[in-house]
């Protein structure tokens, strides 16, 4: 049985795209087929060229700009839930972001991750994890910032973090009946 994973993301500097690629590579280690959908700033997010319903798992990611994800990601995940109470379906997903965090570090990514979680839940996915990876801000280097040198981030250590994260997610999926028989 083919396991289909959607990785939908926006990326301006390439940081989030690098993490999306690392997620795909690590899902492939577990036999998942991945569709990577990069949404540029001018993407018509109200009329996406894909449906979350076609996938067994979803990864939603964005760079963090002023503590928030990009609009096209928020719009494409929000959909049109109407006014009824929503209950997550049997499928799962994760959210991820890249961020500079020059002032306060990881806490600067927290609002974006929480908002992405809410938006993915609008697509009726159970959110089983969130991942925030520091990323460069061009050639901006301020040794006095929270991370110091961000120029080479995400780096190999960050990609190993993605690998361990996916390993943990695969273990979590064992607890969801939807994935019975899919994970072996």
What does this structure look like?
The chain is α/β, with parallel strands linked by helices. It has one domain: Rossmann fold (3-Layer(aba) Sandwich). It has helices spanning about 15-30, 70-80, 110-120, 155-175; strands at about 5-10, 30-40, 55-65, 90-100, 125-135. It has a 5-stranded parallel beta sheet with strand order 2-1-3-4-5, sandwiched between helices. Helix 1 packs across helix 4 and helix 2 runs parallel beside helix 3 (about 110-120). The longest helix is centred in the C-terminal third of the chain and has 18 residues, at about 155-175. The model has no long low-confidence stretch (mean pLDDT about 90).
Secondary-structure topology with pairs:
Blueprint: E1 3-9, H1 15-28, E2 32-38, E3 57-63, H2 71-78, E4 92-99, H3 110-122, E5 126-134, H4 156-173
Parallel strand pairs: 1-2, 1-3, 3-4, 4-5
Helix pairs in contact: 1-4, 2-3
Key traits:
alpha/beta; 4 helices; Rossmann fold
Brief summary of the model shown:
The protein is an alpha/beta fold. It has one domain (3-179): Flavodoxin domain (Rossmann fold, 3-Layer(aba) Sandwich). The protein has helices at residues 15-28, 71-78, 110-122, 156-173, and strands at residues 3-9, 32-38, 57-63, 92-99, 126-134.
The strand line-up of the biggest sheet is 2-1-3-4-5
Q: Which residues sit in consecutive blocks of at least 5 with pLDDT less than 50?
A: none
Mean pLDDT: 91
CATH architecture: 3-Layer(aba) Sandwich
Instruction: Count the domains.
Output: 1
What radius of gyration results from the CA coordinates? 16 Å
Which sequence of SSEs, written as H and E, runs from N to C?
EHEEHEHEH
Helix content class: 25-40%
Strand content: 15-25%
The level-1 CATH class: Alpha Beta
Question: How does the helix and strand content classify structurally?
Answer: alpha/beta
